[in-house]
Amino acid sequence: MSKGTLFINPGSPRSNWLDALAKTLKVDVEVVDCSKSEEYIKLFPLKKTPAFADSEGYKLTEVLAIIEYLFSLSNDKTLRGKNAKDQAQVMRWLSFVNQDMVNAWVDYVFYAKTEESKLNASNTLANQLAYINSELATRKYLSLDEYVTVADEYFFSWYNGFADVVGSITSEKYPYLTKWHEAMKAKDTVAIALSKL
User: Fold this and answer.
1) Which residues form the GST C-terminal domain (predicted)?
2) Could you tell me if 175 and 169 are in contact, meaning their C-beta atoms sit under 8 angstroms apart?
3) Do both 67 and 88 map to the same domain?
4) pLDDT given at position 195
5) Could you write out the three-class secondary structure of 57-110?
6) How far is it, in rounded angstroms, from Cα 195 to Cα 192?
7) What CATH number has the domain bearing residue 11?
8) For the chain, what is the largest distance between any 2 Cα atoms, rounded to a whole number of angstroms?
9) Residue 50: which residues within 8 A CB-CB, separation 6 or more?
10) By 3-state DSSP, what share of the chain in percent is helix, strand and coil, each rounded to 5?
11) Where does a domain end: 17, 48, 72?
């Protein structure tokens, strides 16, 4: 039985991967393209995606909150982290990607009007990717060494957009990040689903 409706923007890395996440977690939700739904506009007048609503009137926006709620509906907690310390690391990386990195991307794509401001935003994102590359030199995945988490999947959803801003993510410049990306494409179900979009 459906737990509710997940409204997504298929072109947005903030929401285009949540359908695959819900399926991985075995959470039965109806996934609806927000641009094709009058109900979405009535329920969410600010038109923020992703958004979630159930039949009892419960509504939720903000990707990190929706991720947390999907986990609450699932018996599978591995992607979230197996203990409190692992979960804190997962939340740390989700927050870093969602705030720091996405803000640099938004600055570049939407707000940078001069070549200098575009270069500044691109350099900020390049520094963040270099930091992640150095972190991945010490472990296999973004949050933990042992297994993929939802933080890896969320970062993967943004990967191509980040690469566009910095002019590509090459193995020469980001060897560990490139290795991580190839591993994700090869075996993570959410990443595989995103690779087909």
Assistant:
1) 83-197
2) no
3) no
4) 85
5) CCEEECHHHHHHHHHHCCCCCHHHCCCHHHHHHHHHHHHHHHHHHHHHHHHHHH
6) 5
7) 3.40.30.10
8) 52
9) 6, 7, 8, 9, 14, 15, 18, 61, 63, 66
10) 60, 5, 35
11) 72
Confirm whether pTM is higher than 0.90: yes
* pLDDT tens column, 166-184: 999 999 999 999 999 999 9
Residue with tokens 């992640």: 132
* pLDDT > 80? residue 197: no
Mean pLDDT of all residues belonging to the chain: 95
Name every residue whose Cβ is closer than 8 Å to that of residue 87 and which is 6 or more positions away in sequence: 80, 81
Whether the CB-CB separation of 77 and 87 falls below 8 Å is answered with no
Do residues 173 and 108 share a domain?
Answer: yes
Summarize the confidence of residues 94-103 as an average pLDDT: 97
C-alpha to C-alpha distance for 29 and 105, rounded to whole angstroms = 30
